[in-house]
Each structure stands twice: as structure tokens, then as C-alpha cells.
Amino acid sequence: MSRVSKPYEIVERALELSTTDGLVVIADEHSSANLRWAGNALTTNGVTRGRTLTVIATVDGAEGTASGVVSRSAVTADDLEPLVRAAEAAARGAGPAEDAQPLVSGVPSSPDFTDAPAETGSEVFADFAPALGDAFARARSGGRELYGFANHELTSTYLGTSTGLRLRHDQPTGTLELNAKSPDRTRSAWAGRSTRDFKDVDPAAMDAELAQRLRWAERRIDLPAGRYETLLPPTAVADLLIYQLWSSTARDAVEGRTVFSQPGGGTRLGETLAPLPLTLRSDPYAPGLESAPFVIAHSSGDSASVFDNGLPLAPTDWIRDGKLERLTTTRHSAALTGLPVAPAIDNLVLDGGGERSLEEMVAATTGRALLLTCLWYIREVDPATLLLTGLTRDGVYLVEDGQVVGEVNNFRFNESPVDLLSRASEAGRTEKTLPREWGDWFTRAAMPALRIPDFNMSSVSQGV
Known about the structure:
This protein is of the alpha+beta class.
């Protein structure tokens, strides 16, 4: 066998080796670069490279089509045939796949399918690193310490199938998390950013934001649990609505298992969920949030099917002008439910028509309100209502008549994002944000801040 090492060659050779009715091959070429710092000084940096190959074999039988999926890392040419045979054996030993569909065909090939994979490296931080050094100097002179990390990943995905698909997508993913602490460690503040290339992040602006929050925390105010008017920043809104999106599968709704199920049968599609003109949408071509324009499914589950690999994706409104418009479907679940095919897309945007920044929303507050930094440790309590619980973290601030007057204790909350949308009284300006809780899995989001008149802080928490 000739030596093959380029990703597209790996894909083509695996397809040549197939002896089953259908084959899907996904080659993911990964590269990453990172910086870490503590106490106003860089501590580590590194660059990594890697390859993962996923082979999905399908076998037609009298009772239906079965599938077998095998994934391996660091695959070389010598590993290919054993990998393909393992996937074929898994398919032959499996029963009919419930989500079986004909493999996707007829999608035009990517013109760069045979090109070398895109790679990231330390050069992605060429402008960011000096600016971070300047932020360290300002923090030292201001009596605060900066901790955090910056990570940039670039994944080139090559997708080939026995039906002729040859698709390729390059996905850059950058995250920046910055934490400022007072020297005695009694005060802490956090900020995060999502980026494609680190050219649109400003460490100086983030440090100034954190310095202000540390000043707010110089005054401590204890508050009891209860319902408070609350300003949810974009990062908190993103974490809540990402979980809502993950819970919006059409089949579960039709079968009466989710908050989107209609009592007595059916779904809540067409129902008004929010009085504000909120539109929750995903778009693989959204500027600054670009994601794969076709399905990449390494395994099947509630919201994905390996049989849908290569299926083109289009802009999709999940909620439009406050009304529930779409629930996520694969081709299989769409056929089961009679609903349109609407696969999940790897970004999420909430538009509410608002123009105010979070700072302007704070200034417009009358009476008392809470200003959150972020949420974490979010867990589901009740799928029927999508009731979630979690904690506030890294700063909850008290606003009185448009002014932040101090930091209050942390809380545990109990809220449903669907219910929050129905009660939101104001949506601010939509901006790119980094989800704090789900940032390891979902980074491409743009959200407004939301004003909730009666956010349920169910108990006081000692979390920080």
C-alpha cells in the first residue's frame, strides 16, 4: 500500500478499503496554542497537534440498515485497514439503526478538499501577548492580580462518503478568560471573551472592567434569598439559552417529555413564549460566529444522526418575534414527527431589538436590582418545565437608582430559561459573548443582557 498521510488521502484510502454498503469517513486535524498566567506573570504556553479519524460503516439487511462507528486518534496509514474493518464488524454485529436514512448525496465538493489542513500556533498571540503584558503592568500598579488563560484551536474537518461527498471545513475557536483578585484574595472578578483570531480582544479594556468590579466589591452587603429585579449579562443569558437549545429536540417534545410539549399531545410550536420581539436563531454564516455549513456527526443521539453527515445547514430561527418557530430534528426525527428538518447548528444568537449596553441598562434602573457577572454549576431539575438550578459566581452587585453601590453575597437560583423569556421586561444590545458554564463545548454565541423583574434567588450560597 502506498504511504498516505495527508488528511484527504487518509479519507480516500479508507473509502477504498470499504467492503460494506456505505461508509462515512471524518478526519479531524487539530492544532492548538495556549497561554496561561497567574499573579500578573505568564506561567506556561504550548502548541499541540493531533489527528482523529472516525469511520462509520453501514450494512443493509432484511430488517433495516445497521451502523458501526469507530474513532481513533493519531491514525497512520498502517492503522487504516484495521480501523475500517473494526467499523464494519461493529455494523455487522449491530441491530438495525433506528435513525437509518440513505447517506447524503449530491452536495457539491469543497474546492479546498485536497488542500493541507489549516493550523494555528503561537503567532496567533503576536498582538495579544504584548497587550496582555501591558495589562499586567497596570494591574500591578493598581494593586490587583490577574490570572487566566487564552486558548486558540483550529480544526480542519475532512468528510468523505461512499456516496461521493467530499467536504471540508476549517473551524477556529478562541477563548480568553481573565480573573482579577485583590492581594488579600477576598475580592474576585471575572471576564471572558470568545474570538476567532484574538485580533478583536482588548486586555486593557477587560482589566479596566475588572478593576471597576473590584472597587465595587470594597463595600459588602448581605442580602437574603428572594426574588429580585436582576440584570443578566450576555454570558449568563447564553448559558441559559444554550441549555434550552440542547433541550429542544422535536421527538422528545412530541412524546410529551419536555417543556416544549403541548399538554394533551403535540408541541408548543407557534406559541408565543416571550412578549418582547425576541428572535433566537442559528446561522452557520453569522459574521464572527461562522460554523460548519453542513452536518458533522461523529455519533448518533437525540439531536444528531451519523446518517445525516454532509447534510447542508441553513439559517434557522428557533424563536421568531417571541413565537416558538422550530425544534431540532434529524432527517429521521423529522419524518417521525412530521416537522421540518432542522439540524442543530454550532452557534446561537438572540436578537431583541434593544440598543442599550449593559452599562446603560444599569444606569436606567430605578429602585433596587442585582447585576450578575456569570452563572456556573447549572443543572436540570425538571425537564417538564426546564427548571434549572445553579450558582452565581465572581461578583453579584447591588444597583440602586442607576448606581452600583456594592457587592452582595452569592446565591443559588432556580429558574427556567423558557419562563425567563416570558418575564423579561427589557433586552439590551446583542453582542458576542463567551458562555462561562458551557464554554468547553459551545463558544459561538451573541446575546443581549436581559432585565428580569423577579429572578428567583432561591437560597444564599457561599460560592465565589
